[in-house]
């Protein structure tokens, strides 16, 4: 059973990202403030849920959250500032969109940077412990998947509809055959044999 709040604050937001380990596409983050009364038995870390369940949860989270924000940070920025900084930036930009602003931030993982003097706590596997982080993980994943499905139409040979930009064998085989696109992260090791 996921916990509601980590802090004593009412306006506590959870934040998480999706797509950190991908070779192509953005890193996408979401931030969510849920009401005290929020209940959902299916909601869990997005990696534990089927695509069908995530798609089912997305509108529920969006209509029941007090506030939510979503941010894509694209390949050029990832290559420029590195994936860790891009992930943190995506989470901070998502939090920035929240109205009202949170009084406390809980972050999935172990790295974050201070944001607007709002106290925060990083929580390893937070998306399987707290509802608001789980909700953020679902939104980050569904919005990123929608984006990857869209750019799949432009470059179907990489099969992003299926692999979402992750380093699958098929994705790497396509990079070997067709080279890279403007959506690939140039600073990532796109092929294992390239140093």
Automatic annotation (TrEMBL):
Record keywords, A-Z: Cytoplasm, Endonuclease, Hydrolase, Manganese, Metal-binding, Nuclease
Keyword flag Nuclease: yes
SUPFAM superfamilies per record: Ribonuclease H-like
Cross-referenced PROSITE patterns: RNASE_H_2 (PS51975)
Class in the EC hierarchy, top level: hydrolase
Cofactor: Mg(2+); Mn(2+)
Cofactor note: Manganese or magnesium. Binds 1 divalent metal ion per monomer in the absence of substrate. May bind a second metal ion after substrate binding.
Location(s), subcellular: Cytoplasm
Superkingdom of origin organism: Bacteria
Keyword set includes Cytoplasm: yes
Pfam family, one: RNase_HII
GO molecular function: RNA-DNA hybrid ribonuclease activity
Listed NCBIfam families: PRK00015.1-3
UniProt similarity note: Belongs to the RNase HII family.
The name this protein goes by in its record: Ribonuclease HII
Organism, scientific name: Algibacter miyuki
